Amino acid sequence: MKSAILLSALIPSAVSATLYLAGDSTMAKGASGSSTTGWGEYVTPYTSLTVSNKAIGGRSARSYTREGRFDAIAEVVQSGDWVIIEFGHNDGGSLTPTDNGRTDCSGTGSETCSTVYNGVAETVLTFPAYIENATKMFKAKGANVIISSQTPNNPWETGTFSYSPSRFVGYAQVAAEAAGVPYVDHGAYVADQFKTLGQTAVDAYFPSDHTHTSAAGASVVAKAFFKAVVCGDVALKSALSTTSFPGSCL
């Protein structure tokens, strides 16, 4: 009996892999007292993985990189973990005449732009380049990466359904293809669900503006992400507690 106890003490217990989420406010936990929150807070019910939501409001692929947030995930990520990267809402704009610290350089490849932000000279990369660089770091640690397109603004805002993906949706796909990792068109799957649910329901999901969802809306957005994962046959589906989510495969 003693030898059995000793042996069990020497064998490490199984540790669940972790699912890291890197994104902006549409993914992040809402502020205390806020009527809105991000879809990353509604991932846990659908996966056996430990969820670590590292999304931060107001960030772009550029600012998330400059602040060392991708690096911070790379420092702790383990082989077999998962990282979902989803940006786009804050990546547009212009570097001139005033750089907001979030705008990326135009283009889809190795183009660079020079700027000064907060008194510091900075070489700005393209949106795909920031995402590809982060992906390479995570893959080097043995992690699995999914690059996801941004969520849509309320497509019923005008009273008539209209979903027009921003250029960053296409850029996310470019980054995924270049980095050799799965691409999930989260935006398209959310839009499809919002169209089915109708204007009254969807308008209620956006209590403060056309971008940020209520808790109920965030739950719909989370389930749409997993629908895209299942339909795309992404390996993450093996870590889901269910593969039955609303909607059709696109």
Automatic annotation (TrEMBL):
Q: Which Gene3D superfamilies match?
A: SGNH hydrolase
Q: Where is the signal peptide?
A: 1-17
Q: Does this entry carry the keyword Methyltransferase?
A: no
> Is Acyltransferase set as a keyword in this record?
no
Mind telling me which CDD domains this protein's record contains?
Rhamnogalacturan_acetylesterase_like (cd01821)
Gene Ontology molecular function: hydrolase activity, acting on ester bonds
Q: Where are the transmembrane segments?
A: none
**Classification via InterPro entries:** GDSL, RhgT-like, SGNH_hydro_sf
Q: Which Pfam families match?
A: Lipase_GDSL
**What keywords appear on the UniProt entry?**
Hydrolase, Signal
Family listed: Belongs to the 'GDSL' lipolytic enzyme family.
Q: Which PANTHER family match?
A: PUTATIVE (AFU_ORTHOLOGUE AFUA_2G17250)-RELATED (PTHR43695), RHAMNOGALACTURONAN ACETYLESTERASE (PTHR43695:SF1)
Q: What is this protein called?
A: Rhamnogalacturonan acetylesterase
Q: Which organism is it from?
A: Penicillium egyptiacum
